[in-house]
Specification:
Largest sheet: 13 strands, mixed
Strand content: 35-45%
Number of domains: 1
Distance between the termini: 34 Å
Length: 266
């Protein structure tokens, strides 16, 4: 019942016809595999997502290709006038989404803008680009590139990264930035979170980096983390409290807390 309820609500409230603000023209695209431990009581079980890093002259964007693919398929069906019940019946054909965040580095200048969906709410907050790396003497070949090791502490976790000056751009996956070359691989000290470069290519054409113009709830990083923790503690209660659609779970069904291992601890 609960799973059925969530599926109907998510499809019914999907926002269509989203416009976007163009921030930059894409020059380089990098693909990463993101793997992580979602449930710390089952560390042998890892989740995976396929991530895209778009790099422009000034701005970069990082997001899940799987989420983009599913949202695009849903958007296409909505544009055809397909109803929520029909879309629910074919939900398996959409596939599974990945992570819900988009990270825009150096937008605005010197900061990053993070957007992320929790339940049916779209949140947005800004954060400074303030990672302090310690470049280490160790060097190695990573994905065919001459790479060097660097370490930092960020969001309550310790990270080891490998970067290459052969691609002289000061960015990388997720929120990582500030090294004198592209970050190829990075992992936290527990091994729970890992980003690995799969490939990259120059982009020719009219591909752009754009920020979808949605009805965002503007917040802070701290405020967003509180909301996320609340959602994972009781997803159905969160949806009932924040939805404009009246929901009454049958037979007094209550949702259980979902595994919660946030990449940022503070």
């Amino acid at each position: 019942m609960i799973k059925h309820l969530l599926s109907i609500l998510i499809v019914a409230l999907f926002i269509s016809n989203v416009k976007a603000q163009i921030l930059d023209k894409e020059k380089l695209e990098c693909e990463y595999k993101f793997s992580w431990v979602n449930d710390t009581t089952k560390r042998s079980v890892r989740k995976e997502d396929f991530m895209i890093l778009k790099v422009g002259d000034k701005v970069s964007e990082f997001y899940s290709y799987n989420t983009f693919r599913v949202d695009s398929a849903i958007q296409a069906d909505l544009s055809k006038g397909m109803g929520a019940v029909e879309m629910l019946a074919k939900r398996a054909s959409y596939g599974k989404k990945g992570v819900e965040y988009h990270i825009f580095k150096n937008y605005p200048s010197g900061k990053m803008t993070v957007t992320e969906k929790v339940g049916n709410d779209n949140f947005k907050y800004e954060e400074t680009l303030n990672q302090k790396w310690q470049i280490q003497p160790q060097k190695a070949k990573v994905n065919g590139y001459a790479a060097q090791k660097a370490t930092c502490t960020f969001g309550g976790r310790q990270y080891t990264a490998w970067f290459t000056t052969e691609v002289p751009i000061a960015t990388g996956p997720w929120k990582f930035n500030g090294l004198p070359g592209l970050i190829l691989n990075v992992e936290d000290s527990t091994g729970d979170f890992r980003f690995e470069l799969l490939g990259l290519h120059q982009v020719k054409g009219e591909s752009v980096i754009s920020l979808p113009q949605k009805s965002y709830i503007n917040t802070t990083k701290e405020g967003f983390m509180k909301v996320t923790a609340k959602y994972y503690k009781d997803p159905v209660a969160y949806l009932i409290a924040t939805s404009t659609v009246k929901i009454t779970p049958a037979n007094g069904n209550q949702s259980k807390p979902r595994p919660y291992n946030p990449i940022e601890l503070y």
